[in-house]
Queue: 2 jobs
Job 1
Amino acid sequence: MNYNLITILGPTATGKTSIAAQLAEDLNGEIISADSRQVYKNMNIGTGKDLEDFIRRNIIYHLIDICEPKDEYNLFRFKKDFAAAFDLILKKNKIPIMVGGTGLYIKAFLHGIFESDPVDPLIRARLKTEMETQGPAA
């Protein structure tokens, strides 16, 4: 069987990063973080951003330090960002290595979940207006 993704998952401080860095170096891979907190810039304490392991080995990583703490980052955005990084890595003929501990993010990519578009504020406002003018359904 041929696979196109290596997944390393587990709780914080269990050695995922060092294993992933070594695998990426040995197998010509790149890292995609599946961590709901590592996406935020300047939030290094408690998030386990052991970037030294990647930097020392010249390993390219994705989805770490990509948004400001004031920004909303959610499952829908993760799936979109992950898919873009995954495709980019495959186009370079490298192996994507997903590393993280956010189970919902990992499950969303591996098994699919919430396969819909984000909330549309215009549709939501229209529905609210209709509900207010028509009253509750009988």
Job 2
Amino acid sequence: MQYNYRTGAERARKIRPFWIALPTIGLICGLYLLANTLYPMLPANVNGQSDMITKKLTEQKPELKQNRLYIPKIAVDVAIVTGVTADTLEGGAWHRKPEQGDPQKGGNFILAAHRFNLGLTPDQTRAKSPFYHIDQLTIGDQLYIDFDGTRYAYEITRNYSVQESDLWIEGQTDNAKVTLYSCDIRGPKAGREVVDAKPIGKISWASGAPKLEKNQ
């Protein structure tokens, strides 16, 4: 009971727990969304992912059933998928225009992947944003591609930015190469980040250990 000088004694109003819990829930959800959004910004090896990919490359042979792209420096280990729509990007690195090239027949092997794609958890967001750190790749860095049961090694030769309308990056080339690209971190309208790489050899296995057989 509480006393009001106008109305006399009256029963005190109870504060409903719901109105206390609602702001707390909103704050927790906001902090979780912020952590989920910022998680891909962490350095690639903050949780040992780069080391795990390097270990995988030295201990596991390529599998015939799935083609994959590995970039240890920025902790990329994703499936290479094909398709005809942008929804294919949800599966990993999209092999754009297979008729233009691949590791076996040469030409321009084009792979596109998400720069940032929000998932339900921080780990899922990071996994769905494989090219988040593509701008950190520099000349001389190496990447590896498992294609039809063979592992190919490549060395980055160029990194640059283009406009969204610059479709020449997907053009046919006489020399064998890999073209990796993703949108600018600000979105597709701001342009694309592109990385070119040249083949340097294949990985062979002797006595259970990998060895680079360089191209002649």
